[in-house]
Amino acid sequence: MKNSKKFLIALLAIVLPMSVFVKPTIAQENPIAPISEESIETESTVTYEDLDFDIDWDDLFGDLEENNLVDKLEGKDSTALAKFMALFTSTVLVFAILLGLARYIYSALTLQKTAEKLGMKDTWYAWIPILRKILLFNMGNQNPYLLLLALIPGIGTLVIAIISIVATMNICEKRGHDKMIGLLVLIPLAGLILWGVLAWGEDKKAIEKTK
Question: Which pTM does this prediction carry?
Fold first, then answer.
């Protein structure tokens, strides 16, 4: 009994001093030690408010606005486009006018030449817009007073167009060609070729007589 008491006293004498020195060491080396709010505040010195993500567009484009460079660039683009469109429109317009003028001169010349070959009077009518229709109707054995049908809106123009085709068919027959060839006037390019043949082509009847 006395020996056990002595052993217990000796054990306590050894353990107590060791616990005094070991406890602070464990507390320092424990990785799961709680973190205080003060340590968080001292370590996180940079906050979201300190980061400025806003871009000052006024400063970025201030010089451009002061010098009106943006307006000048837009003005140059619009001016260049307007000039191009004006040039393109004027070119197309001039081309259309020249093409229409050339077609009118060609049709008047071929009509006059054809009228001369048929022995018609007043062949110069071919150059006057209204008189040329009178000349065409006389050449094709149609009454010129039928042109008054043009005063009827809509249908009058259609009737005049049909009578003009009939007159052209009669002219083809007079020039020694098949009467149905006159229907080629319904095709613009073919009609121009047909009138060229009627104006400068040889008369088939005259060729047959020579044979």
Answer: 0.59
